[in-house]
Specification:
By secondary structure, the chain is of the alpha/beta class. The chain contains 7 helices and 8 strands. A hairpin with a 2-residue loop joins β3 and β4. The longest helix is centred in the middle third of the chain and has 23 residues. It starts with a helix and ends with a helix. 39% of the residues are buried.
């Protein structure tokens, strides 16, 4: 059990110690929940921090049910079995994807302001979130980073199912995880404090 996201980041940093101060290594947090985790890692390991925006695509009428994910750059990952089982039309799916992309672009402008993205070509990129449930959002982020030709991609999270990490490992160079429970119904169940992170908190962490 993690006290909060900062504590989770401290424990994750211990598993990433070999990257401490390494040139050509950058941390990318998935907002909003991944930002305080990654900020804690960045502080512990003296590494640069940026964000990569991606978000789950909610089923029409059931937004909490993930049917895939999309990145701010338009990388889309879909759960085709769920989409077929729910009978979601192509038009409804496109509307859901478009809605998420508009929101991601808004949030990137808000978080980044005039600050350019970190260059990822030839870099070791460590992607961090506060935990993985389905893994679709992280997969969209991994594929978005892969387009920028990094030297390697590492997925690092405090908690995830082993099978989710195994699934992601096929598209990454390394996965790092503090806790791999046998069951995971919600990431928040592994935190004493899993308070929602505000846009203002994200901006504050990125400005440090």
């Amino acid at each position: 059990m993690f006290r909060d996201r900062g504590h989770a980041g401290e424990l994750l940093a211990a598993l990433l110690e070999r990257y401490r101060g390494q040139p050509g290594t950058v941390l990318l947090a998935l907002p909003r929940g991944g930002v305080p985790v990654a900020a804690s890692v960045a502080n512990a390991l003296a590494l640069p921090l940026d964000v990569l925006l991606a978000h789950k695509i909610g089923a029409p009428g059931e937004p909490e049910l993930a049917i895939g994910a999309v990145s701010v750059d338009g990388v889309v990952v879909l759960d085709q079995k769920a989409i077929a089982a729910m009978g979601i039309s192509e038009a409804a799916l496109e509307t859901a994807i478009s809605h998420e992309q508009v929101e991601l672009l808004r949030r990137e402008r808000l978080y980044r302001g005039d600050r350019p993205r970190l260059a990822l070509s030839g870099q070791t990129v460590i992607l961090i979130d506060d935990g993985l449930a389905t893994g679709y959002t992280m997969l969209a982020a991994v594929r978005a980073v892969r387009r920028q030709q990094p030297a390697s991609i590492v997925v690092a999270v405090p908690v995830a199912l082993r099978e989710t990490l195994d699934w992601l490992r096929a598209e990454t160079d390394e996965t790092v995880c503090v806790d791999m429970p046998k069951r995971l119904e919600a990431v928040g169940q592994f935190y004493e404090d899993f308070s929602q992170i505000s846009d203002e908190q994200v901006i504050e962490e990125l400005s440090r």
